[in-house]
């Protein structure tokens, strides 16, 4: 309650959404989950791009061939290898 004795907007929203239980909590975390997923995709794309930039000597040292790298780099960022 605020100083006027009325419930705040957040309190009214919480009261109105109590019947939704865990669904509201899941909905509140949806933007965070979307941001997390976008960051995963961004990192995956960056790693595949960097892998493609490595020279053959480093790839051999890691036990990879150029074909392995091209196969991995050709996978869309939204798909896990």
Fill in the keyword field for this structure.
single chain; 81 residues; mainly alpha; 0% strand; rod-shaped
Question: Please, what is the oligomeric state?
Answer: single chain
Q: What is the count of DSSP helices, taking H or I runs of 4+ residues?
A: 4
| Biggest pleated-sheet summary | none
Strand-pairing-aware structural class: mainly alpha
Spans of 5+ residues with little confidence (pLDDT < 50)?
none
Based on CA atoms alone, the radius of gyration comes out at 24 Å
Look at the structure and give the mean pLDDT.
81
* Percent in strands: under 5%
Q: Specify the overall morphology.
A: rod-shaped
Number of domains in the coordinates?
Answer: 1
How many angstroms does the end-to-end distance come to? 51 Å
The total of beta strands comes to 0
